[in-house]
Specification:
113 residues; mainly alpha; 6 helices
Length: 113
């Protein structure tokens, strides 16, 4: 059984992430306007939660923008690395879903909202 820190595992991960870097960069770049909206508009009233929720809901938009960027620049990568891209997509969808499911829990924490 190979460990996660073994050279072969790291090389395999690197060979999957490197060609799809545009999707990751787009997912991160979309966080800046979301953070700006969170800090200026403050929809929830708590700075940390405003940042978390705005950035979580922006993540799927970044994923779609990254896919479009990737398709335009290197279209062949989408088919060869579909499992990695599926992982990015599921991650970008899980964040806002997690936010929706846990929103009522923050009301139980004193001074959280």
């Amino acid at each position: 059984m190979s460990s996660l820190n073994s050279p072969s595992t790291l090389n395999r991960l690197s060979s999957n992430v490197h060609p799809t870097w545009r999707v990751v960069v787009a997912m991160l770049l979309v966080q800046a306007p979301a953070a700006l909206i969170a800090l200026t508009w403050s929809p929830i009233g708590n700075k940390f939660l405003d940042l978390w929720y705005c950035c979580a809901f922006a993540m799927p938009l970044g994923f779609v923008a990254g896919l479009l960027w990737q398709k335009h620049v290197a279209p062949g990568v989408l088919g060869r690395h579909r499992w990695m891209l599926l992982g990015y997509g599921l991650f970008s969808l899980m964040l806002p879903i997690f936010g929706i499911l846990t929103y009522d829990l923050w009301k139980l924490v004193p001074d959280a909202l």
